[in-house]
Predict the 3D structure of the following.
Amino acid sequence: MVAKISFGNSLFGALAYNGEKINKDEGKLLATNRIFDDGTGKVNIRKALEDFMHFIPDRCRTENPVVHISLNPHPDDRLTDTDMENIAREYMEKIGFGGQPYMVYKHEDIDRHHMHIVTIRVKEDGKAISSSNNFYQSKRATRELEKKYNLHTAERGQAISEIPLRKVNASEGDVKKQIANTVKAVVRGYHYQTLGELRAVLSLYNIDVEETRGMARNREYHGLVYSATDDNGNRVGNPFKASKIGPSVGYEAVQKRFAWSKKQVADKGIAASLKEKILPILAASSNAENFKSRLQAQGMDVVFRYTDMGRIYGATFIDHDSRSVLNGSRMCKELSANALEQFFNSPHDHTQTQQGQTAGQTSGGSPFTGADQWQSQSTPVSHYDHSHSDFDGFGLFTTDNPAVDPAEEEFRRRMQRKKKKRRGPKL
């Protein structure tokens, strides 16, 4: 179980955030302590605020007196509402807040049900409950509760990676919430080094991301916007600025994630490890769709980008086990876009390659091994169409930035120039 404790000044904001979810039937009020509950299952946010204010002295000098806690059981834990209420009350006792006024809410708006607790760290005599040791108290409390209730052990990073991701479906409504839930989990849970790699993994869940650039008050700004798409990669509805979702998915946070991911991939040898997993699957694949299906059976995906003429000019691989996203060219030349285009769409060269692989396997010199042990499986996969030039809702979109693979962009431009040259003269 993972606990996250936040301190702030807005008591009404914390109460309204949780109360509105309950009143919209997106959760339940599980318990209150020293706060009136009328038993209707709804929350009177104003009345709750008044009740809390009775416990805060008029001249309160405590900075950030409001405490907002989220308790997140492991997704595999099956807890009743009574279990959740008991866990929340015992947790509050263990961290020294058992006598404080508080409200316990169960959030049900995503598949991973979890609890939120709103309380204050000001005692009735005006003294503040110290927050200097709250991390260690909280960690000890969650470990004790895991043992008592036979819960799965989960660190914070593991909890993020365990969140079940779902494709955005615009027909289900509340698209912003669907996008926010998935984007937060992907941005914080995967390794990616460019915006293109982040875009590739988000495309699996019908989400697109773009960078915005512009001038405001004579200063250049950078930002990100996220959009819902259909299964063919076409945008659906209005985009959402990252600032409307949260700073954790904004431009600066993503840039920091690029640098962090680069170090992780290098330190852990992720590129070499994935190469050894993918090359045998490629050798056993008859075409691009078969390749995708075989990868999916092993917990991986590949997102191809195509020119208007149907040539592969980009390939990004996603390994969901290690939560890693890598352009093929980062791993080896055999997995680059040009090599994959030749492998799948040039039958003569493909046959020669397979013959060379067979000879290499006989002599023990080929990296393609174990292909004959593969069992074919088929899974429907959608293409991702990388086309964004028709969108200008939030300002200038450009591709001349570090988040774009230069080799891929050069290949795409070269193919476009060739296409223009082949056009006949106008009559």
Confidence is low (pLDDT under 50) at residues 156-163, 350-408. The CA atoms of residues 343 and 352 lie 10 Å apart. The first strand starts at residue 2 and ends at 8. DSSP finds 15 helices and eleven strands in the chain.
